[in-house]
Write a structure and sequence with these properties.
Helices cover 49% and strands 12% of the residues. By secondary structure, the protein is of the alpha+beta class. The protein has a 5-stranded mixed sheet with strand order 8-10-11-13-12. A 4-stranded antiparallel sheet has the order 2-1-6-3, with helices on one face. β10 and β11 (523-530) form a beta hairpin. α1 (11-37) runs antiparallel to α8 (301-340). The longest helix is centred in the middle third of the chain and has 49 residues, at 357-405.
């Protein structure tokens, strides 16, 4: 039976309240420290956020420079968001979402942080940008094929070896277009000194891919130059790579400022027009706060002292609260431990002082002690009953043997029959005890087979017909022949036989004992009913206890050993069934065995 514990008395609630108080103290202390120490951290965070924003813009610009659209940008956006702790969103010019690290439906910040356009970037914010503001990673039609890359790489490796043989160190670097070039190890620029033996010009010779792209670029720039009133020959100034061109650098002193101002936009527009199909469309970049990154700040001695002092205070409060709660919790547990360590024969109880989980544990401990005390009393009573059951037949056998030995009586057939009866009584008690011991140990073996109920009842009735006639009691068996059991027939005859024997002992002359079988849903109900004296309501709950008798003064010989009904209960339980009794004093009793139905007879066909 469960005991309802008031909410405020429950151990879990009390621990939660204690933890909540500690958490409040910790949060308050943390908040105070945050207010006192984050000013410098915020300044550092602003600088870090600006650097992160520039990195985000540079990486997205690189994506746009190497992809013709934004179809695969979502992954890059999410990775950048996870790395920086910022919300990152890309939209079209009319604010249609291209990719967003925030959940769908999240509103955008009021204004865009920047525009992502690899063909128009800020030269100062994007290191390595070309002169017209084109991202250096936008190479478009200038990207070399695999064969061209391998050929140029082999030529570059030969030239580096040549440089090395002439005492000039150089490193190899791969440009975005796939071309391999030589650079100075220290500055990263093109080596200023080129040995004459290495200046064969093969490495800088344009590949077929670069020549096709350059011819297309010159065609795009020619019309613009002619419309500006300039010589179309300026297109020859365009290089064979994707890099921008400053015409004043190519023709110093030969091109005036006016001509340069007119020619340069034509060359820049032509280069952008050529690269435009190979880069992603312009997108608006929105940056939100997202998950706040970890604040990094330098702990000053004053801040360290505050942290140590506050942590010490929180620790002291935690220890005090825990000690108080633990003391109240441990006290009843110590009482339980002390009671459990007492000798078992004392059956010590513990006082129940609380209504929480420990109080329920104390009640359960006291219940267990009472059950143990009751079982000990039952064990002693059972030993006494067994001794009495065995003493009576043994005393009779010994007495008759002694008087026969002394010659007082002759060993005639009547005496021998009497001794045989006493031996049978003794054997019956021993067999009953053995059956109960097997049932308790779980070694009661069953040999199941299909059993026809009408035949089973007829066999039991036939076995007790002589006893019924001697007692002048009518014994009848009534069963439908279509009812089958999957059971051990020997054990079932034993169980029903015990019930019939018990019924015959309690039924007066002229009475009736009836065995019947019927279906009850999926189960089979076997009943043994009598018209005997019946059982008092107060005794009905004890009829299946060992050595129990309603009439304490009845002799063991006429009243049985008191083990028959307990054996019936164990045999039925071994078959997966139950046994129940109902009775009215002066009317009779009915014992019902309820067993699972059987599958019917086996076929050998």
């Amino acid at each position: 039976m469960s005991t309802r514990i008031p909410l405020h008395k429950r151990l879990l609630v009390r621990l939660l309240i204690t933890s909540g108080l500690i958490a409040v103290c910790s949060v308050a202390a943390t908040a105070w420290l945050a207010v006192a120490t984050t000013t410098q951290a915020l300044r550092e965070e602003q600088g870090q956020a600006l650097a992160d924003d520039m990195d985000v813009l540079a990486e997205l610009s690189g994506y746009a420079a190497t992809h013709p659209d934004w179809s695969e940008a979502a992954r890059t956006v999410k990775e950048l968001s996870a790395r920086t702790g910022r919300r990152i969103a890309l939209t079209t010019s009319d604010r249609r979402i291209i990719a967003d690290s925030a959940p769908p439906g999240t509103s955008l910040p009021p204004s865009a942080a920047a525009s992502v356009d690899p063909l128009h970037i800020d030269t100062y914010s994007e290191r390595g940008a070309q002169v017209p503001g084109i991202d250096p990673r936008a190479v478009g039609p200038y990207r070399l094929t695999g064969a061209e890359r391998r050929k140029v790489a082999a030529l570059a490796d030969q030239r580096r070896l040549c440089f090395s043989q002439h005492g000039v160190e150089a490193d190899l670097r791969h440009t975005p277009s796939g071309r391999t070039v030589l650079v100075d190890p220290d500055s990263g620029a093109t080596p200023a000194l080129v040995p004459d033996a290495c200046a064969d010009g093969r490495l800088n010779t344009p590949t077929p891919t670069e020549e096709r792209a350059t011819r297309a670029l010159r065609a795009l720039a020619r019309n613009c130059l002619v419309e500006a009133g300039l010589d179309a020959g300026y297109t020859a100034l365009l290089s064979s790579g994707p890099d921008g061109v400053d015409v004043r650098d190519l023709m110093p002193g030969k091109l005036g400022d006016k001509e340069a101002r007119l020619a340069q936009p034509c060359l820049d527009r032509a280069r952008r027009a050529q690269l435009d199909p190979y880069v992603a469309p312009v997108a608006e970049l929105f940056l939100g706060t997202g998950d706040t990154p970890a604040v990094l700040f330098d702990m000053s001695p004053a801040n360290k002292a505050k942290v140590v002092g506050t942590a010490s205070l929180v620790l002291a409060v935690t220890v005090a609260a825990t000690a108080l709660v633990a003391t109240r919790l441990v006290r009843p547990l110590r009482a339980l431990t002390a009671a459990a360590q007492q000798p078992p024969e004392l059956h010590v109880r513990v006082p129940v002082t609380t209504r929480d989980e420990t109080g329920i544990l104390a009640v359960a401990f006291n219940d267990l002690t009472e059950r143990r005390e009751r079982l000990e009393a039952q064990r002693k009573a059972m030993v006494s009953d067994i001794a009495h059951e065995l003493r009576s037949p043994l005393t009779n056998i010994r007495g008759w043997l002694e008087v026969t030995r002394d010659g007082v009586v002759d060993p005639d057939p009547v005496l021998l029959a009497s001794l045989h009866d006493e031996a049978l009584v003794l054997q019956r008690v021993i067999d009953d005890l053995q059956d109960l011991a097997d049932a308790d140990a779980g070694t009661l073996r069953l040999h199941r087979e299909p059993v026809r109920c009408d035949e089973l009842l007829q066999q039991v009735a036939a076995a007790h017909r002589v006893a019924a006639d001697a007692a002048r009691v009518e014994l009848r068996a009534d069963a439908d022949g279509d009812i089958w059991l999957d059971a051990d027939p020997v054990r079932m005859r034993q169980a029903l036989g015990n019930l019939v024997s018990n019924a015959l002992r309690h039924t007066p002359p002229g009475g009736r004992v009836t065995l019947s079988a019927r279906r009850d849903g999926d189960d089979i109900a076997l009943e043994v009913a009598d018209t005997g004296t019946g059982i008092a309501p107060g005794d009905l709950a004890h009829v299946f206890e060992r050595f129990w008798r309603a009439e304490k003064s009845r002799s063991r010989r006429t009243g049985g050993s008191g083990l028959g009904l307990p054996i019936v209960r164990h045999l039925v339980a071994a078959h997966g069934g139950t046994v129940a009794a109902r009775s009215e004093p002066g009317t009779g009793s009915v014992f019902t065995l309820r067993l699972p139905g059987g599958p019917g007879p086996r076929s050998d066909a």
